[in-house]
Amino acid sequence: MFKAYDVRGTYPNELTPDIAYRVGRGIVAFLDADNVVVGMDMRTSGPNLSAALIDGILDQGADVTNIGLVSTDTLYFAVGKYGFPAGVMLTASHNPSNYNGFKICREEARALSLDSGIAEIRDMVLSGDFPEP
Asked: What is the reported pLDDT for 47?
């Protein structure tokens, strides 16, 4: 599920609301973000996963700016243009409709990769070990 440039899997078999919640916590913990922009595409699993992701972000102590149904480019634009410290786009790009995932970016809309944050978030998600908010 934790790929080179995103987190992606089938819903609800691999990518569950619990995983989404933990990813939200991990993003805030790794980036030390105080506000995370969240957007999603039109996949039917988006609302459930978005709600869980947002709960994780909030529980880890950050605010959420939910921009709703948008393109990935729009989310990246919002993060870069308006100076947010982080953003998460719920999408699985070209994959079939039973997939969903998270594209994560940091300040200036710089995308995270396995080598620049996704591995650390993965480790927190799998261990359940998050710093106190």
From this structure: 98
Q: Name the architecture of domain 7-127.
A: 3-Layer(aba) Sandwich (3.40)
Q: How many CB atoms lie within 10 A of CB 87?
A: 28
Of residues 50, 93, 97, 113, which has the active-site annotation?
Answer: 93
**Cβ–Cβ under 8 Å, residues 93 and 87:** no
pLDDT of residue 83: 98
Q: Is 127 a catalytic residue?
A: no
Q: What is the mean pLDDT of residues 112-129?
A: 98
